[in-house]
Amino acid sequence: MVAALKSDAVITTRLGGEGETVRYIVENGTPHEYSDVFHLSTPVAQWWDNVIFACASFQPFRTRADSDSWCARHALPKGAVLTMPALWRFASDWYGNYLDPGWRKRTPEEARDLFHRHNLTDAFWKVE
Are 80 and 41 a contacting pair, CB within 8 Å? Predict the structure, then answer.
């Protein structure tokens, strides 16, 4: 949501929602550089089945291998893994106008186009 707020922020969370505390800093609309990755476990087609669960399954990790072991421990599917810069570009596009007057939910076609613009084209990103 930092992208929607269009403000500086310090995001404090835990790796995998359970490990080391990490902070991600956004200044002047740009995050600092981080080598961490972000794993999204719940496929797009299931996001609105239980949005709280879906969002809770989206977690930062130091490496892709860390996300793989987390998925195994929690019996969750391996989903999409984005670099932090790719996540920021996607989130800025996905949430960037969320607080604007007249905002409306995207149509499936608009969501597909947005995913395609960010090269998010495998089965994980399929919109029903």
Answer: no
Amino acid at 82: L
d(CA 3, CA 1): 5
Residue given tokens 């995207």 in the structure block: 106
Provide the total of helices (H) and of strands (E) in the chain, helices listed first: 5, 6
Show the CA angle centred on residue 38, arms to residues 22 and 8, nearest 5°. 55
Q: 21-27 and 30-31 as β-strands: parallel, antiparallel, unpaired?
A: antiparallel
Per-residue pLDDT tens for 42-95? 999 999 899 999 999 999 999 999 999 999 999 999 999 999 999 989 988 988
Which CATH architecture fits 2-120?
2-Layer Sandwich (3.30)
CB–CB of 22/12 below 8 Å? Answer: yes
| Closest alpha carbon to 124 in 54, 50, 53, 36 | 54
